[in-house]
Every structure is written in C-alpha cells, then in structure tokens.
From TrEMBL:
The species this protein was found in: Caligus rogercresseyi (Sea louse)
Domain named CTLH: residues: 198-255
SMART domains tied to this protein: CTLH (SM00668), SPRY (SM00449)
Protein name (record): Ran-binding protein 10
InterPro entries in alphabetical order: B30.2/SPRY, B30.2/SPRY_sf, ConA-like_dom_sf, CTLH/CRA, CTLH_C, LisH, SPRY_dom, Ubq-SigPath_Reg
UniProt-annotated stretches for the region Disordered: 252-271
Amino acid sequence: MQVPFVPLKAFPPPAASTILKDGYMGVGLSAQGVNLNRLPGWDKNSYGYHGDDGHSFCSSGTGQSYGPTFTTGDVIGCGVNLLEGSCFYTKNGHHLGIAFNNIPPNLYPTVGLQTPGEIVDTNFGQEPFLFDIEGEMYETRSRLHRLIGDFPVPGKHGEWQGILQKMVSSYLVHHGYCATGEAFLRGTGEVISEDLSSVKNRQAVRKLILSGRLGEAIRLTEKLYPGLLESRPSLKFVLKVRHFIELVGGVEEDSNGGGGSNNSSSNGGGTDIILRMEVDPPSLASNPIRIERLIHFGRCLQSMLGELEASTGKNEEHSKMLSDAFSLLAYADPWESPGRNMHTAQLCHFGIQVPAREAATGKLLGHIKKLVRVMADNDLGTCAFADVDDFLK
C-alpha cells in the first residue's frame, strides 16, 4: 500500500507507505513529540485514517466515519493543502474528501503499525503517484485565479477602462511604437502622457547602435541629453568599448563628425580620432597608421577603465569587456571573431532607456511582484499560485 504525501509549493514534502502484509494500521500526520507507540490520530496533534474501520481520528481516541476500509494491495494517499489548512486522503487514486480542517503547521507523515510482521513500503515521490496531484494543483490554481478575476474593482467601469487604456498607450509609446501608440490614442481619445519626440530620439539612438555607428550614437546622445553620459560613466565606458570594436572591424566612420577637434583625453577621448576605414578594409598588419590609432584609442579606454574603477570600485565585467575587445586585434578578420557581437543587446537596452521614465505597466508589475513577496514573507500560502508570469502567458 503506497501512501503518498503530496509535494509541491502548496503541500508538504511527499511521503508514502506500501503495506505488503495485512495488519491493523493507520496513516496520517503527527507533530513532533507525539507518542509513537500509538496509532496516528489517537493523541493530541496527531491525525490518522485507520484501515480496520475506515474512520478518521483527530487527536482523539474516538473516530469519525470517513471512508472505506483498506488492506493489502490498496494504495492510500495523504495530502495536506497548506492554503486551506486541510488534510485529505485518497484510495487507489480516488479522492476521499477532506478529513481534517484547521490542522497546525509542521506535521510529519506518519504510518502506525500494531500487528506483528506488518511490512510497509514508502513512496516519498521517487515514483509517480497514483493520484493525479497535478490535476489537484491545477484546480487549486484555477480557483485562486477565479477569485482574483472576480475581485471587485473600485470606481465606475468607465474609470477603470480609462486606466487600462492609459497603461496600453504608455507601454506602446515607452517602447518606441510611436505610430501604433498615436493610432491607439486617436481611437480612444486619450491624451499622450509622454513627449513623442523623446521617444523618437531614443529610437534614433537605438538604430545607430544596431547599425554599428557608435560614434554617431554617442554624439547624438550627448546632443539630445547633455550630461547624461558624464553622470553615468559605466554606460559611457560600455559605449566607448563597443565603438572600439566597430572600429577594429573596419566600419567607415568619422568619429568627430568631420572636424579636427581634440585628439584624446584621459576619459576616452580617443574616440575623437578621425578614422576613415574602407568597407572591406585590408588587414591590420598592412595598415600601420590604423594600428597606431587603434592602440591609442585602446590606451584611452584603459585609462578610462582605471578612472572608473577608482571612483566605483573594480568591476570584473568591465575588465573582461575591455580584454575581449582588445583580443579582436589578434584576428585577421575581426568580424568573424567570437567577441564581435558582444554587448549589442545591452547597448540597445541602454539606447532605448535614456532617460525615459518607466512605463506604467513596468511599475505595476514590479509592485505586484513585491506584494507577492510580502505575502510569502507572511506565510500566506496562496501566493504560491499567484505567479504574475502565469497571468501574462
């Protein structure tokens, strides 16, 4: 007889017993310190389902009629629903109903045997359970989701609808879907909450990064958002390193927009060197002037990293980033090297975020996830089924 104690988030660790010979026995739960010389359910903080009469025993020697009797060959399961504080049993995969309510926490699976020669085999989840526990979990999750869906929303329906429309438009505009956002706003009659020109500016920076025109992306960022890169030296360093990678690859670029401004500075001014690279450039070995300029740029980046570490502390990610970028100089064709496409996703993220406010949907999701963590900290078991990501699928 197997006695699986159901696992997963809402249930205690699985335990099981298989009785291979007939006997007088009980299956249940017990708190620490319970008398182990008596069947589960007879003593305080002990709960049991006995096979000889099918009665349930709740911390008492007097049983209540509960289910069928069980004997050799039967599979008995015991599960605890921590969300409801209840205990149920199954026989041969069939749910027998709730046996106990308002049970305390921290109970242990217990099998009591009183007849000499009884043999029990246990299953703590190492084998599949006969009872469909996944279906039970699904039903519990569905009940909670229905409860959440039926929760009354304060205010009139029109007010709530307006809030949802603002959230949708905020998401579209924030992530750069300007045309779609404008069309949505026209259809709903809402007023845009964010300057579209700011969104388009971020789109422009992102497109430059994606196309490998890092020099232009840096200059445009400095023009549109003066002081941003100086206030975020880590972002500036990542942009400059990526600029170095593109130059090693031979992208044609005039780093200062066509003028002969300052050649370098200790904070990465090496990007101001005018570099005219061919679309299909010769190898670095055949272009000593190009090598010299790249080396000078690299020294400026090394100096910039030193200043960054002096102000913010050593950063292994930055050091590896620069080391990987320098390693491209060893390749005959840097565009085919492993490090060629590194950091692009990170830079694109930076490119579309400067310096935009967080979208309303992002704030809402962050708030909800924090509330779920607070529920977990306060031992509210329902939070195990209130996964925000489940609702977004």
